[in-house]
């Protein structure tokens, strides 16, 4: 059960309204997570700025894969529904690739290295080994790319934590529970 309400358009704080309206226009509807998150213009706009900046990092399949891997580790069912939907419809990942990503893997070797690294970052709270860092670098990622992976892990964790705390009503298709994959 939701622990906070999704704001109605007339309830959205003025400082959140332009950002929320832009998302609504781009997506075609207002996801409940965003309508809830908009209650705090400071947190919501900071997240939206980070999301906008990181949308230029890496490629969409890798970004969505990292979102799936991190959301699986953090147990965020809301984010798993969102990222599964976007991975299928925007990144054009197959159902098999989505399951692999949730496990921190990909069939593409370079993307696999990024997802494995992202999963290790979240599981180890950043305390990765030299071997972990070497593996992602050996796959062709620069230090700047590694920093982007870490930033993506942090950004996805922010929404995972928000959704785990406030549990907004799910408005994307349900996904298979982790124990079944």
Automatic annotation (TrEMBL):
Transport among keywords: no
Pfam families: CMD
Residue ranges of every copy of the Carboxymuconolactone decarboxylase-like domain listed in the record: 44-115
Domain of life, per lineage: Bacteria
GO molecular function: peroxiredoxin activity
Keywords: Plasmid
Classification via InterPro entries: AhpD-like (IPR029032), AhpD_core (IPR004675), CMD-like (IPR003779)
Nucleotide-binding recorded as keyword: no
Name of this chain's protein: Carboxymuconolactone decarboxylase family protein
Organism: Cupriavidus oxalaticus
């Amino acid at each position: 059960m939701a622990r906070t309400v999704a704001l109605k358009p007339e309830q959205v704080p003025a400082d959140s309204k332009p950002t929320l309206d832009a998302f609504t226009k781009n997506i075609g509807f207002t996801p409940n997570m965003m309508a809830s998150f908009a209650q705090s213009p400071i947190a919501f706009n900071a997240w939206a700025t980070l999301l906008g900046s990181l949308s230029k990092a890496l490629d969409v399949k890798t970004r969505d894969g990292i979102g799936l891997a991190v959301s699986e580790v953090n147990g965020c069912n809301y984010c798993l529904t969102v990222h599964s939907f976007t991975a299928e419809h925007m990144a054009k990942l197959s159902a098999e690739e989505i399951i692999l990503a949730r496990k921190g893997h990909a069939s593409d070797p370079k993307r696999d290295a990024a997802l494995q690294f992202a999963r290790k970052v979240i599981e180890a709270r950043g305390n990765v080994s030299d071997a972990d860092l070497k593996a992602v670098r050996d796959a062709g990622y620069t230090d700047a790319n590694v920093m982007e992976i870490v930033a993506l892990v942090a950004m996805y964790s922010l929404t995972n934590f928000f959704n785990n705390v406030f549990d907004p009503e799910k408005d994307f298709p349900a996904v298979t529970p982790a124990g079944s994959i």
